[in-house]
Amino acid sequence: MAKITLSNLRHSYLSNPTDPQDYALKEIDLDWNDGGAYALLGPSGCGKSTLLNIVSGLLTPSAGRILFDDKDVTNLPPDQRNIAQVFQFPVIYDTMTVRENLAFPLRNRGVAEAKIAERVAEIATMLEVEEMLDTRAAHLSPDNKQKISMGRGLVRDDVNVVMFDEPLTVIDPHLKWKLRSKLKELHQRVRATMIYVTHDQTEALTFADQVVVMQEGEVVQVGTPVELFERPQHTFVGHFIGSPGMNILPASVDDGRVIFNGNSVRVEGGITGEGGVTELGVRPEFVSVSDTGIPARVRKVSDVGRHAVIETMVGDTRVRAVAETANFEQGAEVHLAFQQDQTRLYRDGWIATEVAS
């Protein structure tokens, strides 16, 4: 396995890029440690696949370097980077048995047959497909085909990194949880460096120890699932992660006070910076409907089982709150209270409050 370093990485599909908007990837610096589980998370078009293709060697970046254990591999072709990939659609041979599919990457590299048999048996046990080993792949269900595709990526014990590109997209929703759990279990057992690319926050947050959130070619935050939820460094992270996402509210700063719709709101700590577009960020989980606070009107109530999402209007601005009960009437006049240590100011999208350490 290897530590992967991306240094001053940029990429444009144009021959002569002149403007930051010409770049699909804008100045990325990242370290992925040996043996870690990482996710690249973001919407379609944010640069995830471009970054994955650069790491794998399918693309050469316009600028910057890729290092594997401090060795520069920027200009090396894919076959010299020692990478295993699992794609959105299962890459297996339908005419081969499961056993032959799992053995193929090893046999193709001239590994001894005894070693092949040992590794195939080991991976088959991990994937719980021992009873299918002599079944032709054409007869497998879609989820089992993807299991075998994962197994082909994991069967080699000499790879630098295993990369997963939207591997559960074609899997039925009720099977996704099972395969996500299996993948997490596999990582804990083999401790390979794994990078998982997805637009699905549930997949990213349940698999990865560290999540890289991307927007429009930029990395806007790298952190644990808890860090991304509890303290988003950018409004995009707050909006994209969570269900429902963070309330992003228009605000102003007046003499050190944060004002939202004429109401003074206390935020988590000191306010940093000056100017820019200022907004207030607070997750619905930290907004409570109470007898005092910011006046609001109930617009809609959604009972989602474990709790209710109360959609309110403060003037012309929508504010959502999570409550234990759905006993709120549409049109009712209520008040909202924001939990101070979970309420933050943002300038031009970036966090602008700090807490003393």
TrEMBL record:
Domain ABC transporter: 4-241
GO molecular function, a single term: ATP binding
Stored Pfam families: ABC_tran, TOBE_2
SUPFAM superfamilies: MOP-like (SSF50331), P-loop containing nucleoside triphosphate hydrolases (SSF52540)
Signal sequence segment: none
Keywords: ATP-binding, Cell membrane, Membrane, Nucleotide-binding, Transport
UniProt xrefs under InterPro entries: AAA+_ATPase, ABC_transporter-like_ATP-bd, ABC_transpr_FbpC, ABC_transpr_MalK/UgpC-like, Mo/tungstate-bd_C_term_dom, NA-bd_OB-fold, P-loop_NTPase, Transp-assoc_OB_typ2
Keyword ATP-binding (UniProt): yes
Gene Ontology CC terms: ATP-binding cassette (ABC) transporter complex, substrate-binding subunit-containing
Family of this protein: Belongs to the ABC transporter superfamily.
Protein's recorded name: ABC transporter ATP-binding protein
